[in-house]
Specification:
It comes from Miscanthus lutarioriparius. Belongs to the FPF1 family. One of its GO terms (biological process) is regulation of flower development. The protein is an alpha+beta fold and 107 residues long. It has a domain of 63 residues: Metal Transport, Frataxin, Chain A (2-Layer Sandwich), CATH 3.30.920. The protein is built from two helices and eight strands; from the N terminus they run ββββαβββαβ.
Length: 107
């Protein structure tokens, strides 16, 4: 049983498979925003440029991943090679490790 719990008119009910009362999906898309410039990150090239400016270095060992490491820290950012599979989990990982430079917003 999967879905979303909806509270309406004092009644809580489970709406199956995330469908709202009107049949629309409740899922929201997220976007990673570079905070100083206010620009939405739309490609790995843009992201890599911003991360390099913050002192991150890219590892080229695994072609299935984009990996970044910061010298003097234990942090590692691992992202899928296909930008289409770049999800909110990956976005929040970047935000946590670069608190003042990135944020995640609803689109």
């Amino acid at each position: 049983m999967s879905g979303v719990w909806v509270f309406k008119n004092g009644v809580v009910r489970l709406v199956e498979n995330g469908a709202a009362a009107g049949g629309e999906a409740v899922r929201r898309r997220k976007a990673l925003v570079h905070t100083p410039s206010g620009q939405v990150v739309r490609s790995y090239a843009e992201l890599e440029s911003e991360l390099r400016a913050l002192g991150w270095e890219r590892y080229y060992e695994d072609p299935a991943l984009y990996q970044f490491h910061k010298r003097g820290a234990l942090d590692l950012i691992s992202l899928p090679a296909d930008f289409a599979r770049f999800s909110s989990v990956h976005m929040y990982d970047i935000v946590i490790k670069n608190r003042d430079s990135f944020r995640v917003v609803d689109v």
